[in-house]
TrEMBL record:
<keyword id="KW-0812">Transmembrane</keyword>
<dbReference type="InterPro" id="IPR002810">
    <property type="entry name" value="NfeD-like_C"/>
</dbReference>
<protein>
    <submittedName>
        <fullName>NfeD family protein</fullName>
    </submittedName>
</protein>
<feature type="domain" description="NfeD-like C-terminal">
    <location>
        <begin position="41"/>
        <end position="97"/>
    </location>
</feature>
<keyword id="KW-1133">Transmembrane helix</keyword>
<dbReference type="Pfam" id="PF01957">
    <property type="entry name" value="NfeD"/>
</dbReference>
<keyword id="KW-0472">Membrane</keyword>
<dbReference type="InterPro" id="IPR012340">
    <property type="entry name" value="NA-bd_OB-fold"/>
</dbReference>
<dbReference type="InterPro" id="IPR052165">
    <property type="entry name" value="Membrane_assoc_protease"/>
</dbReference>
<feature type="transmembrane region" description="Helical">
    <location>
        <begin position="12"/>
        <end position="29"/>
    </location>
</feature>
Amino acid sequence: MLLVYFGSQSVWAMALLGLILLLGVIIAIQAHRSRARGGNEELPGMVGEVTQASDERGRARALVRGEIWQVHADAPLQPGQTVRVRAERGLMLEVEPVPERDVSLGEPS
């Protein structure tokens, strides 16, 4: 009945349009269900490099994700040392030193 009224090309065009709309709805639903991650939520677990040595209170500065952050660590930090972010507390990051791999054993650094 539709073929008589619309013609075969119109039916295919409407079917293709319907599939495209269905695909768009499915993508929109999946995007809505996924948890948004961005900003400072993704900082824990990231690795950075110390740019300024730590002071007597354990505070230093480090380059993480292309930004200079004020960091705090229990161990003293030296410039060039690699650190991993444990937590974010406002504008300060809690970090821990990443142990350097032993190059003499052939492990990648």
